[in-house]
């Protein structure tokens, strides 16, 4: 065995000695034994686990649960917690004790990671508040502001595959409970690296002297969220279906629905309660093909008028409506369709308010800009992620096409699948009072601002380096057309002017007025391509999008 192999085994043994988790210790011990006996596969596995660290960025940490510095586990979380605590102490300044609040969802190890963090924060001298039980991410985002905390941590991997978990970080004070942005991410990462360099998490001070929040925090969230759209009289006859996608949304959402006065939904019972195995879906993401099939079946059985779904940590909202042209009679609305409906709602409420703005990520539909213009509101395009959207000046509403919506920025500075669901229920009930449906509302909006259509091409990869190679190839040899449609202009947002959104994004504007944007996913091993078109009719816009999707697939096939 090479010297590098012996060094890797020694590194793994040092990691194992500090690991408090018997499951990952045993897992790693078996790999080390095989590697030490000359098993090349086991040694390659150690290289993958220890050849890098999971990178802490503006999205925090997210990865597969397993032993190693390049995985999510109790050692990595302890290092992250201790590093974040050091950052908060430094940020607070001498003589001030920071407060941090911690939430967790129903994924495997979420409670353990949250408790470890609470003990380490308390051991570092912080006032530490653990939420009372597993709860949706929006409750944690709310709690940061409600409790006047300096920071928040949410243990969740949102809609990622079942064996993933993550560590999402929020800042209070001037950041108003929003997720971190640069340079805080780099400063926190540097503190984490210093902790990791010590080499032994067992030496980190821990304390059980942390607080557990009482139910008043959850009650306050429920009251504030129900107030987003109290049920009108017409809501009484609304028949709808709800699924929590095996996540933590139902207990909180059901209380919000009752408090707001809406009729209780028919539920998808097989997906209603937290289940870390997500046994009825391949991916616990309502955007994924097949994820809402049980919801469709339930809706057909009860004659529903609407389906509402949350993702596992309830920060995203999916909506489906009856559609006789769709297979099975139901169609899931796109994130842009929902986003524009909720933006229309917000624009009507904010019309005439000085400085009020609508905001969306630059890959979301340009239709939101058209709504803002129609109602005399400001409009902001940001990089993807609510860490950026929530910081838009004067924001009254923000969204991103990946099913994320911010409808109550004075309460929660993050996407919130529960408050946005309440807002959508309010729209459905108001429409019902006029004898129309959500589909009719989409037609009314099109008549007002024009027809917008969107599409997306995603490539999931095993080797993430392929994404970098494709982006590099597009930069080195920019395409002249997408399919048969010429490209009029190309923008590389890595070279964006100061004050404009800057990131690893390529944006192409085409001769027919359509738009194609290419970017790597920030949370999954995917390359994503976003397509937007505007036309006189919805059918024409959809035809443009379909043609561009074919062209995009051909282009990516040639590059990969």
UniProtKB/TrEMBL annotation:
It holds the Pfam family PGM_PMM_I. GO terms for biological process: carbohydrate metabolic process; purine ribonucleoside salvage. Residues 54-195, 220-320, 335-446 form the Alpha-D-phosphohexomutase alpha/beta/alpha domain. Belongs to the phosphohexose mutase family. It comes from Microbacterium keratanolyticum. Its cofactor is Mg(2+). Keywords: Isomerase, Magnesium, Metal-binding, Phosphoprotein. SUPFAM superfamilies: Phosphoglucomutase, C-terminal domain, Phosphoglucomutase, first 3 domains. GO terms for molecular function: magnesium ion binding; phosphopentomutase activity. InterPro entries: A-D-PHexomutase_a/b/a-I (IPR005844), A-D-PHexomutase_a/b/a-I/II/III (IPR016055), A-D-PHexomutase_a/b/a-II (IPR005845), A-D-PHexomutase_a/b/a-III (IPR005846), A-D-PHexomutase_C (IPR005843), A-D-PHexomutase_C_sf (IPR036900), A-D-PHexomutase_CS (IPR016066), Alpha-D-phosphohexomutase_SF (IPR005841). Coiled coil: none annotated. This is Phosphomannomutase. Gene3D superfamilies: Alpha-D-Glucose-1,6-Bisphosphate, subunit A, domain 3, Alpha-D-phosphohexomutase, C-terminal domain. Residues 490-544 form the Alpha-D-phosphohexomutase C-terminal domain. Residues 1-24 are annotated as: Disordered.
């Amino acid at each position: 065995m090479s010297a590098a192999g012996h060094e890797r085994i020694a590194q793994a043994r040092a990691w194992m000695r500090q690991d408090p988790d018997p499951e990952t210790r045993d897992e790693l011990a078996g790999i080390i034994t095989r590697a030490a006996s000359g098993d090349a596969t086991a040694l390659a596995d150690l290289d993958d686990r220890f050849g890098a660290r999971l990178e802490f960025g503006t999205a925090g940490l997210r990865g597969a649960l397993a032993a190693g510095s390049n995985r999510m586990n109790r050692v990595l979380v302890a290092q992250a917690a201790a590093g974040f605590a050091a950052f908060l102490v430094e940020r607070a300044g001498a003589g001030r004790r920071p407060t941090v609040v911690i939430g967790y969802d129903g994924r495997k190890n979420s409670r353990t990671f949250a408790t470890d963090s609470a003990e380490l924060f308390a051991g570092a001298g912080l006032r530490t508040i653990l939420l009372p039980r597993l709860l949706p991410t929006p409750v944690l985002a709310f709690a940061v502001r409600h409790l006047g905390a300096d920071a928040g941590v949410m243990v969740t991997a949102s809609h990622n595959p079942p064996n993933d978990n993550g560590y999402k970080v929020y800042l209070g004070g001037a950041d108003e409970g929003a997720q971190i942005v640069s340079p805080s991410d780099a400063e926190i990462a540097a503190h984490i690296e210093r902790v990791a360099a010590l080499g032994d998490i067992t030496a980190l001070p821990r304390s059980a002297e942390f607080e557990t929040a009482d139910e008043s925090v959850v009650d306050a969230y429920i009251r504030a969220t129900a107030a987003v759209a109290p049920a009108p009289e017409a809501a009484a006859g609304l028949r709808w279906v709800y699924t929590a996608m095996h996540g933590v949304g139902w207990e909180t959402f059901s209380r919000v629905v009752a408090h707001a006065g809406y009729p209780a939904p028919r539920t998808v019972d097989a997906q209603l309660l937290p289940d870390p195995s997500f046994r009825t879906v391949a991916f616990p993401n309502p955007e994924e093909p097949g994820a809402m099939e049980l919801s469709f079946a339930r809706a057909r059985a009860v004659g529903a008028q609407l389906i509402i779904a949350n993702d596992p940590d309830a920060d995203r909202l999916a909506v489906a409506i009856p559609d006789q042209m769709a297979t099975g009679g139901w169609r899931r609305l796109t994130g842009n369709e929902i986003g524009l409906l909720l933006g229309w709602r917000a624009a009507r409420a904010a019309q005439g308010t000085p400085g009020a703005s609508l905001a969306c990520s630059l890959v979301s539909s340009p239709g939101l800009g058209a709504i803002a213009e129609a109602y005399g509101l400001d409009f902001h395009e940001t990089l993807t992620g609510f860490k950026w959207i929530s910081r838009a000046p004067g924001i009254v509403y923000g969204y991103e096409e990946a099913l994320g919506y911010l409808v109550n920025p004075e309460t929660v500075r993050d996407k919130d699948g529960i408050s946005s669901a309440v807002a959508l229920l309010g729209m459905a009930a108001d429409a019902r009072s006029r004898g129309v449906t959500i589909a009719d509302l989409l037609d009314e909006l099109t008549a007002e601002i024009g027809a917008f259509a969107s599409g997306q091409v995603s490539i999931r990869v095993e080797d993430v380096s392929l994404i970098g190679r494709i982006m590099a190839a597009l930069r080195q040899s920019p395409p002249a057309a997408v399919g048969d449609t010429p490209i009029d202009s190309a923008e590389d947002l890595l070279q964006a002017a100061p004050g404009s959104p800057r990131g690893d994004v390529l944006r192409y504007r085409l001769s027919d007025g359509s738009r194609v944007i290419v970017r790597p996913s920030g949370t999954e091993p995917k390359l994503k391509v976003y397509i937007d078109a505007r036309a006189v009719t919805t059918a024409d816009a959809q035809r443009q999008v379909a043609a561009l999707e074919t062209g995009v697939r051909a282009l990516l096939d040639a590059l990969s």
